[in-house]
Amino acid sequence: MKKAIIFGTGISGRSAAELLLKHGVAVSVYCPEGADSTAAVALKESGAVILDGDPVKAAKIFVSQACGDSVAYLSPGIPVSSPEADICRKAGIAITGELETGARFLSSKIIAISGSKGKSSIVKLIADALSMNGRKALPCANYGIALTEIAGMQFKPDTAVAECSSFQLETMGNIFKPETAAILNLYPDHLDRHGTMENYRNIKLAMFRNMEPDKLVLLPAPSEDPYGLLESYRKIYGRDAITFGRGADAQWRWRAGAVENRDGSFRASIGRSYFDHEVHGPAAAAACAILHNEGLSKDAIERAFARYEPLPHRMQFVGIIDGTRFVNDSKSTSFSSLAAAVRMSAPPVYLIAGGRLKGKIEIDVKEIVTFGVKKVYLIGECMDEMSLAWGAELPVERCGTLDKAVSAAHMDASNGGTILLSPGAASFDQFKDYTQRGDTFTNLVRKLKTKRG
Predict the structure, then answer these.
(1) 178: which strand partners?
(2) 369 exposed, middle or buried (CB, 10 Å; 0-12, 13-18, 19+)?
(3) For residue 334, which of 25, 41, 116, 161 sits 20 to 30 Å off, Cα-Cα?
(4) What gap in Å lies between CA 76 and CA 190, rounded to an integer?
(5) Is the dihedral of CA 205, 207, 211, 215 positive or negative?
(6) Mind listing the domains of the chain with CATH numbers?
(7) CA 395 to chain centroid
(8) What tens-digit pLDDT sequence spans the chain (453 residues)?
(9) What's the half-sphere exposure (Cβ side, CA atoms, 13 Å) at 124?
(10) Which residues of 13-25 are buried (b: 16+ CB within 10 A; e: fewer)?
(11) SS3 of residue 343 by DSSP
(12) Is residue 442 within 8 Å of residue 328, measured between CB atoms?
């Protein structure tokens, strides 16, 4: 690789630029914030050429100067169908991204985790468990440190536990090669970008493309696999995978309080942990299979589950006011994650939902009513759509903003219930990201506590 253009100056793009510069690549960076931004100035000082203004113009400038060994790096937020990517592709320039570029310069073992929900929690659990047992392990890619940043470290970890989003897998080629990989689940998500469930599924399955046949591949058991991951994997790769889940067809199975394998050689107690629930239980079974494969003892695995601390904004307990629990699940940006959050909450549930839709409303309102939702408080751009979809079956209040929703839910809530922020939608209509949305919710709850004395 002699020349590269980096589209995007977020964590992924910046670390990729620094890595390639370190390896003698001539790097151009398209900086949407402008040539005088903090990111642009820092990259320019490192030796990058800064291109700003229009990304299509930047792509044309790069193409005019490119040589035979050039690449275009797309940060995860930029689709492979974008105009700038199309210009580079038509000029014969290879499209790449974080997973490929990081793996090119990384000798560490890679454990790859993908899925529609619960990825970050499992990545953290696996990295924590390995670290507790003397391994040098780091969570990376979509959660934790960028894979390109790890690749640039002087002292690299023994194991990189990589959360692989569909956005990152879009640019995967022939270099990213996990030793172990799992897809935890598949539900409708990011269809505004990927179009169809079939395309979304196939992007996820690309994660296994470069793996050797004898390496550990984990997929949901058929009884919990509505979109045919296992069947498609068999057709594409001509081999089988290890299955996990809750049913008898799973080779690694979660049952309340424990995970066991089919032949009875392994059984670990995970009772009272964050994962001991029908929502996270199957993913816990996959994690046990991976950690067992890594040589950890049953006792070591049990300790890892017992000591696990949940990530912020993922079913995060905020506090209790007048007997009502407040739970921050701002990371929920899909209806599958919203449904999971409702199932994990103590009823009656007063649900705060809404924001910017990422696709169709892919949930039957009867499902959330069954699991104890008493009323929904809507915020954001999709208030009208969600109100139309759910209003006939469930009391709905159109609040508009998060502060009004928290106040209204607090007025209605009864002792012993749960006020749950689980939006089921993106945050970008009213917030910078889901973190800001969750922090705002937490601060609003704290203000309520202060008022109550």
Answers:
(1) none
(2) middle
(3) 161
(4) 13
(5) negative
(6) 3-96 (3.40.50.720), 105-307 (3.40.1190.10), 316-452 (3.90.190.20)
(7) 31
(8) 999 999 999 999 999 999 999 999 999 999 988 888 898 999 999 999 999 989 999 999 999 999 889 999 999 999 999 999 999 999 999 999 999 999 999 999 999 999 999 999 999 999 999 999 999 999 999 999 999 999 999 999 999 999 999 999 999 999 999 999 999 999 988 888 999 999 999 999 999 999 999 999 999 999 999 999 999 999 999 999 999 999 999 999 999 999 999 999 999 999 989 999 888 999 999 999 999 999 999 999 999 999 999 889 999 999 999 999 999 999 999 888 898 899 889 899 999 999 999 878 877 777 788 889 999 999 999 999 999 999 988 999 999 999 999 999 999 998 889 999 999 999 999 999 999 999 999 999 999 988 765
(9) 16
(10) bbbbbbbbbeeeb
(11) helix
(12) yes
φ/ψ region of 320 (left if φ > 0, alpha if ψ in -120 to 50, else beta) reads: beta
> pTM of whole model > 0.85?
yes
Token pair 């003892």 in the structure block, residue: 297
Count of CA atoms in the C-beta half-sphere (13 A) of 33: 12
- Short-list 167, 13, 40, 186, CA closest to 101: 13
Q: Identify each DSSP E strand in 67-211 by its residue range.
A: 70-74, 94-96, 109-114, 137-141, 159-163, 180-183
Total count of residues recorded for the chain: 453
> Residue 168: CB partners within 8 Å, gap ≥ 6?
76, 97, 98, 99, 141, 142
Amino acid (one-letter) located at 183: I
| Two tokens, residue 363 | 């949930």
Q: Which residue has the tokens 């696999």?
A: 225
Q: How far apart are the first and last CA of the chain?
A: 63
Q: How far apart are CA 416 and CA 419, in angstroms?
A: 10
Which residue, 341, 309, 339, 340, is CA-closest to 328? 341
